[in-house]
Amino acid sequence: MRRPLSHRLLGLAGKIAVGLVVAFILLPAVVVTMSAFNDKAIMNFPPTGFSTRWFARAFSYSDFSSGFRNGLIVTAFASTIALVVGTGFAFVLDRYEFRGKKAMEAILTSPLVIPHFTIGLGFLILAAQIHAARGFAVVVVTHVVLVLPFVMRSVYVSLRNLDARLELAAASLGARPGRTLFTITLPLLLPGLVSGWLFAAILSFNEFTASLFVTAQATQTLPVAMYNYVREYADPTLAALSVVYIVVTALLLTIANRFLGLGKVLNVEHGR
Amino acid sequence: MKTRPFLALFVSPAALAALALVGALAAILQYAFRAFVPGSMEPGGLTLANFEALLRPLYAGVFLQTVWICLITALVTLVVAYPLAYAIVRSRSVTLKSFLLITALTPMFLGEVVRTYSWIIVLGNSGFINSVLRGLGLIERPIQLMFTTTGVVIALVHVTLPIMTIMLAAALSHIDAAYEKAATSLGAGPVRVFLTVTLPLSMPGIVAGVTTAFAWTFSAFATPQMIGGGRVPMVSTLIYQLGFASFNFPFAAALSVTGLALTFAVLALAKAALSPLERMGAH
Lengths: 272, 283
Description:
The complex is a heterodimer. Chain A is mainly alpha-helical. Chain A has a single domain, classed as MetI-like (MetI-like fold, Orthogonal Bundle), CATH 1.10.3720.10. In chain A, 76% of the residues lie in helices and 0% in strands. In chain A, α3 (62-95) crosses α10 (222-232), α6 (136-160) crosses α8 (177-206) and α7 (164-172) packs antiparallel against α8 (177-206). The longest helix of chain A is centred in the N-terminal third of the chain and has 34 residues, at 62-95. By secondary structure, chain B is mainly α. Chain B has a domain at 65-236 and 265-280: MetI-like fold (Orthogonal Bundle). In chain B, 76% of the residues lie in helices and 0% in strands. Chain B has 13 helices and no strands. Chains A and B meet through α1, α3, α4, α5 and α6 of A and α1, α3, α4, α5 and α6 of B. Chain B: Keywords: Cell membrane, Membrane, Signal, Transmembrane, Transmembrane helix, Transport.
């Protein structure tokens, strides 16, 4: 049965709309890539010649390499701590009732709506008040709080989809709670744990606004170093670095999607 | 407590994290009521002066402008994200689905600096848009997009698009396709099916998406800072300027507290205003 012309036109209009939205999303990435390989120092279009020297400069600029190192330190600690804290709490959220549970959940998910500059300013002032040095600890604590909602959600969704009968079976066969947890529950949760950790790591590594408030020169993370670069120089070095960023992030997401199914984690398709 | 193994063990780390966050928010609240001592990082005695200063037209104006930008951004993002979310949920090809999903998500994980920097190259006077338009002979002098509200909103839509798409897609994926089939078999055309079945049923996602986009726009800093270049002041850029250019942390704290109150008020308001619609799509 052929659909009437009006329906087909409508379908075509829908496809064009989606195409335009995809173009809008990709436009900055495409333009920044063109700019990164342009040999001129000023941003101009169309590019006049091909060069990879901005990549060379991006990789040799010392603020970027120290920012990268600092970022890895902060990310490794923050995402791992957030994974432990978030998994524990997601477990409790799913299984137990206790006084203050609702309040704690509200507090821990609130960074989703509290502006990052408020959280950054808050931890900056708090650190000053308790006379803590502006070292890595402050940055890590700030990042843990910021990425925790994402870890909690990822693990919580996996817990909901977990077949509780498997745990009951283990328990009825005589396994103690600890053994059930480590041999049944955690292995079954693994995809959720990995995706939660990955989300947390990517978000922490790329976090900018709160980091701008809580980092000092010695703890500057990569996005903060990049922001400072734009304020001082106008050459395409940052475009080259952006291209690296875009490629790595898209690759990580593709891998995550391949192994974990982003759709399911993000709840945009039904798990079976 | 045999029925609740590990409860204390699992709750205590989370309780510590919650405590840290509450401590940070309490620190802001406390600073908001302290006097600014110029030239000193330490705040002075208790005062309401910071909140009185907020009422001055200069600062009140920044608040109004911020709310306006947030509203426009949230609504434009909704219109842009809807077809994309629909395509992600309804597309029959797995490859296309994955491509659209990753395209939609990548910007969210890139961080604000990379995204905003890219938009500077797109929007600048010798940037992509102006070069293309000039190359085609459509304009003689560049259209000013940098340092304008329009430029800031364009980039902010790009920033909030992923989260809006996820929320809309989540809502759309929970709609039973049988409802749409039923409407079609009863003779409704595709437009009517969309307007009377799909759209109302996706209302919870729309409510969640718009309110989250509003909060994210309010939270955006790098975009208004780098694209607005000080000429499109928003609450976030003002707070940063007060803190790191004038070291007036008490006033910055007062602005943060007011901004937070405003965010929660708007979220509550949006929820209340849209709750009848939400109920409509809730079954």
